[in-house]
Design brief:
Distance between the termini: 25 Å
Structural class: alpha/beta
Radius of gyration: 14 Å
Helix content: 25-40%
Order of helices and strands: EEHEHEHHEH
CATH superfamily: STAS domain
Number of helices: 5
Strand content: 15-25%
Low-confidence stretches: none
Number of domains: 1
């Protein structure tokens, strides 16, 4: 199953509608890569719509957590929208839903982004040593 991510702008929050698997095996088009590009551009408030993701495995969880790390280290927030069925069960079991915040409706999720965005951490360029800076 392939991945399709549709990115839309809703004011100061970026909404990503995910279809299929989150982990693609293709770095260039992965969720993590998309989130890194957003963070580098200063867009660090992200709502990930999982309503069209029917299942997740460990690779998908890894992709989700790597993306969350990028956004968090850039001073932002990442929240989840409409996880259903097996996805909701997995997010509850792993407590990822508690960590990020999972919402049933887009309106309630968008309202949950309150207050000013936290200061952004400087992210390392690909050629900088990872020991000094975070590299997502």
């Amino acid at each position: 199953m392939s991945t399709r991510l549709i990115i839309r702008d809703d004011g100061d929050v970026i909404v990503i509608d995910a279809y299929g698997k989150l982990a693609t095996g293709q770095e260039r088009n992965s969720l993590h890569a998309q989130l890194r590009r957003l963070a580098e551009g200063g867009r660090c408030r992200v709502l990930l719509n999982l309503s069209a993701v029917s299942s997740m495995d460990s690779a998908d969880v890894g992709e989700l957590m790597a993306g969350h790390a990028v956004i968090t280290m850039a001073g932002g927030e990442m929240k989840l929208l409409s996880p259903l069925g097996q996805v909701a069960d997995l997010l509850q079991t792993t407590r990822i839903g508690e960590l990020m915040g999972a919402y049933a409706t887009e309106a309630s999720a968008l309202r949950s982004f309150t207050g000013p965005q936290r200061p952004r951490h400087r992210m390392a360029a690909k050629n900088e040593p990872r020991s000094e800076w975070y590299y997502g």
